[in-house]
Amino acid sequence: MQTTLEQLVSAAQAGDRAALKNLVQEIQDQIHHLAMRMMVNPDDAQEATQEILILVITKLSTFEGNSAFKTWVYRVAANYLINAKKIRDKELGLTFDIFKQDLESGLDPKSSSSDTLSPNMASGEDRIWLNELRVSCTMAMLLCLDLKHRLAYVLGDILDFPQSEAAEILDLSTANYRKRLSRARNEVVDFTSRNCGIANSKAKCSCPRRLPAARKLGRIPEKGSGSSPAYALQNAPDYIAVIEDVQALEAELQTIKLQRATPTFSSPQDFADKLTTVLTLNNPRHDIPH
Fold first, then answer.
1. Burial class (CB in 10 A: 0-12, 13-18, 19+), 11
2. CA 255 from chain center: how many Å?
3. CB 203 within 8 Å of CB 111
């Protein structure tokens, strides 16, 4: 019989170390994906994932089942991502105006915005790099929002949480959450519809025009030699497929499509053994730390 998440929680709360390990494995990918969408930098996201998992483990005895466990986990994660000093200190102070200027600097004059919409404009390695740029740009765009509005947008429009559940995660009334999400959404949609060559063929910036400068400036993470991208985008939609899908949508849906068309950022590290061993061995009774 398959063990449910609720059964794992109950067993872990009772001191079952194996259940605690399985519980960490069940939630670590979701936490890492949230951290990546909030922070973009893979190293920062991995560090945040570990810190959040430690909080989940050490606070697990306080979970009383008044909400779904998944909702509770996201609430722990949200509190950390909004309030942790080390997270706030890593904020770049990016604004939509600054981001627009950066995107439009060093555009390749040999390419035009209309190149973005041509299905035959790239193949092979070029298409991989263009997809990396598309994903990097749409993720970095959200850094122009402050942490509270960014998190509201990620929960609502990217992770597609019902508004009532997202409000509970953020400890807001549903009405106040709607206002926060609406403000964040309006800013992202307005910027995308004006400045993204995929959503607007008249925009100055397009992926083909931006790619040479983006690589030179380090806007796309690359592996050691610089010969290949650092992100693993095997489970992300293809560059051309995204373009073809977006063309048929209206502005708000274009933006959501672009923001959701990213990889599911599974945790590159399995924290289960490490954290459950360290945290339970530091507790002489070998149960869940309080």
1. middle
2. 15
3. no
- What is the per-residue DSSP string for 25-69? HHHHHHHHHHHHHHH--HHHHHHHHHHHHHHHHHHGGG--SSS-H
Q: Residues 48, 80: contact at Cβ < 8 Å?
A: yes
Q: How do residues 29-61 score in pLDDT, each as one tens digit?
A: 999 999 999 999 989 999 999 999 999 999 999
Beta strands in 165-214 (DSSP E): none
Return the exposure string of 65-78: e unless at least 16 CB atoms fall within 10 Å of the residue's CB, then b: eeeebeebbbbbbb
Q: How many degrees, rounded to 5, is the angle at CA 216 between CA 213 and CA 222? A: 120
Tokens of 222: 């690359």
The pTM (predicted TM-score) of the whole model is 0.88
Q: How far is CA 174 from CA 146, 158, 166, 185, in A?
A: 20, 18, 8, 16
Residue 275 neighbours by CB distance under 10 Å: 20
